[in-house]
UniProtKB/TrEMBL annotation:
UniProt catalytic activity: hydrogencarbonate + H(+) = CO2 + H2O
Protein's name in the database: Carbonic anhydrase
Species whose genome carries this gene: Leptobrachium leishanense
Cofactor(s) needed: Zn(2+)
SUPFAM superfamilies: Carbonic anhydrase (SSF51069)
Gene Ontology MF: a single term: carbonate dehydratase activity
Gene (UniProt): CA12
Enzyme Commission no: 4.2.1.1
GO cellular component, one term: plasma membrane
Keyword hit for Phosphoprotein: no
Alphabetical UniProt keywords: Glycoprotein, Lyase, Membrane, Metal-binding, Signal, Transmembrane, Transmembrane helix, Zinc
A Pfam match: Carb_anhydrase
Amino acid sequence: MYPLILTILSLPAVWAASDGQNGEATWATKYNFCGGVYQSPLDFHHSILQYDSTLVPIKVNGYNASITDLFTLSNNGHTVSLSMLPSMYIEIPPFKYFASHIHFHWGDLASPKGSEHCVGGKRFAAEMHIVHYNSKYKDVSIAMNAADGLAVLGILIEVGSFNPFFDRMISQLTHVQYKGQESQIPGFNLQDLLPERLDEYYRYEGSLTTPPCNPSVLWTVFRNPVFISEEQLRSLVTALHCDDGNGSDPVEMTNNFRQLQQEGERLVSVSFREGVVMAVALASILGSLVIIGVVCYLFNRKRRSKKNQPKKVVYTLAMATDENTSKV
Ligand SMILES: [Zn+2]
C-alpha cells in the first residue's frame, strides 16, 4: 500500500540523512535525476514568482479519519512517515490524486532550521510533505516514474505555541526511534495539520527531494506556516535514528533536508497577490515618490539659490511732485 516507502527502503545504502551535504553530493553519481533538471526544493524569491489567477483553493477530501481507523507511524531510516487512507484524495484539475503518506524534514539542535523550501531566503524550522499520486496510475511507485505522477502538499513549520494535532505523532516518536520500527496511531482529522488558509500557496513543477529524485512532482507549498512548540520541535529533531539500533554506533536522524536547487527556466506560480503584485506596486509607488522627492529638492534648491542671490536694487529717482505729495 505504501510502495514509495518500500522503494526508498529497498534502495542501496549509498545515502543517508545524517550525511548531510556530503551524502547529497554523491546522489547524482548513482541517480541521474538527482543531477538533472526540474529538481526540488526551491527558494521562492520575488524574481521567479508569477501571480496566477486560475489557482483555486486546495480542497482535501476524506482527511477526517475516524478514531477507529489506524494510521501507521514508521521510521524508514531517512524520515518518520505516517500512512494515509485510500479514501483520502485531492483534486488539482484535470487530475485526482490519491493520498499516500506524510513525512517530515528537519535540522538539528545546533541549527534548528530544516525546511526544504525557503521563502525569500528564509529557511523555516521544519517541513511536512503530504504525498499524493495521480489516480490514473495503479500505485505510487508506478506514478513516481511519470511526469504527471505525484502531487505533494508542502507545509512549512515554524516555532510557536504547542500544537495538539502534531502531538498525536510527536508524542509517539519514542516508539519508532530506530529504522524499521512502526507504531499504530488512532485516526484523526489530518486537515488539522494544515494551515488555515488553503487558498494561498506556491505551485511549481519539481522533483522528489530524496533519491531517486524523479522530476514527477507537482508541488503545492502553502504560504502560511503551521506552528509547533520549541519542545515539540526538539522532540522531532532528537528522537529518531537512521540505524536499526543493533549496531554499537547509533546514527542520529538529523538534517534530513535537501539543499536548494536551481530553478533554471522555471517560474513559480502563486495564488495570492500580496507580496508579489503588491511588491511591484509598492516598488512603483516608492520609485515615483523618489522621483517626486528629487524633483522637489531640485526645485527648492533652485529657489533658495535665487533667494540668496544679491538683489538687484534699482535706484529710481523720487519723482515726487507737488501732486503726489498732496495725496498723502
Ligand atoms: Zn519530503
